[in-house]
Amino acid sequence: MALDRWIALILLGICFVYGYAAWFTMDGSLAPFMKRNPIWPSTFPKVLSVVGVFATLVILLGFEKHEAKEAEIDYRRLGDYFLGQALLLLALMVIYALSLRPLGFLFSTSAFLILGSFILGERKWYVMLPVAFIATGTVWYLVQEVLGIYMRPLPGFIGG
Fold first, then answer.
1. pLDDT tens readout for residues 106-115
2. Residue 88: CB partners within 8 Å, gap ≥ 6?
3. N or C, which terminus of the chain has less Cβ within 10 Å?
4. How far is CA 146 from the centre of its chain?
């Protein structure tokens, strides 16, 4: 079996576990007044799991293949690819997730966007900084003010 099908099989298992959690475990602890809402907190995870199962089945069953071609990624030559960038981005994602609470959303997300774009090769600081700050501020405003979900904007030691 090709590498893309193995990855799709692994993702199918993840989507099944995620879907099970979304369909059977998330709604049990809802407050009674929320059970009458048309959209529940589990609505997006349910849709995401169904789309994920559908997409991985398309890959597993081979519907996306039009013609036979050689593999785009040769797993025997992983050293020839930008593996360092990928591993650095994964490490940055973990650090970002761990720093959200202690450092606050605004600082953590801005730093993640700036460092992530730097790792990917962007060197124009006059582009990176405004884009990161505007995107971070916009997302924080939408989540905090429009959706009404509290996110700690500043580090805890500053008063966030």
1. 999 999 999 9
2. 119
3. N
4. 21
